[in-house]
Write a structure and sequence with these properties.
By secondary structure, this protein is of the alpha+beta class. It has helices at residues 95-98, 107-112, 127-142, 147-164, 176-194, 202-205; strands spanning 19-25, 41-49, 51-55, 58-62, 67-70, 76-78, 85-92, 116-118, 121-122, 168-170. It has a five-stranded antiparallel beta sheet with strand order 1-7-2-5-9, with helices on one face. A hairpin with a 2-residue loop joins strand 3 (51-55) and strand 4 (58-62). Helix 3 (127-142) packs antiparallel against helix 4. It is globular.
Length: 206
């Protein structure tokens, strides 16, 4: 369900394991991914074909085995010419790993608090990341005994790769255009969270 503010309102997994796996085929006549956003992060993997999607304020073309990581609060959906593609995705609340993080590293908290923004497109030639992403999707597809523990561990490893390879922008280093767009969006999201139970007008959000 997507509300009037384009926020997708869906329960991912459950309160203890808030992560959900999806498999999408753009050739399906019923397929449609309208522009939307959610507070959870989303990781997309192109299984076959090519896919054009809109992320933040531009279109990205993804090819077989490419990956796309969407930070919470970022508007995304189908591009104008989506192409024929089979892709899988996981949507997860980063809180599920932040509350299990016993290290002094606050990188995950910076992601949750939108102090850093992820590089969205991750090409298939990033072997280390591709290996971990493949492990993650395999776990979510097959769900072997103990997969929740494995999945949580893999997500920690993915976060470690993102940080060690600096696949993110710190808030103060975001390119000017993207920074302005992100600051505007953050202001709107914070306002929506604060006034969530109220009826909001376009004038208020502007």
């Amino acid at each position: 369900m997507i509300n009037a503010k384009k926020q997708e309102l869906l329960q991912r997994g459950n309160a203890f394991f808030p992560i959900q796996y999806y498999l999408s085929n753009t050739a399906n006549p019923l397929y449609n991914l309208p522009l939307h956003w959610h507070f959870e992060m989303e990781l997309i993997h192109i299984v076959k074909g090519s896919y054009t999607m809109f992320v933040d304020n531009s279109e990205k073309i993804l090819h077989e085995n490419d990956m796309c990581l969407i930070t919470g609060g970022i508007l995304h959906g189908d591009g104008k010419k989506i192409g024929k593609c089979l892709y899988e995705s996981v949507v997860f609340d980063p809180e599920m790993i932040r509350i299990k993080n016993y290290s002094a590293d606050d990188f995950i908290s910076q992601i949750v608090d939108r102090k850093v923004y992820m590089e969205d497109v991750i090409p298939s030639d990033n072997g280390e990341m591709y290996s971990k992403v493949n492990e993650l999707f395999t776990m979510m597809r097959k769900k072997p005994d103990g997969y929740e523990l494995f999945t949580t561990g893999i997500l920690f490893e993915i976060m470690g790769i993102l940080k060690s390879e600096k696949m993110y922008y710190e808030k103060s280093l975001v390119p000017t255009g993207k920074k302005i767009r992100s600051e505007q969006l953050k202001a709107v999201l914070d306002f929506i969270q604060e006034k969530y139970s109220e009826q909001l007008t376009l004038e208020q959000m502007a």
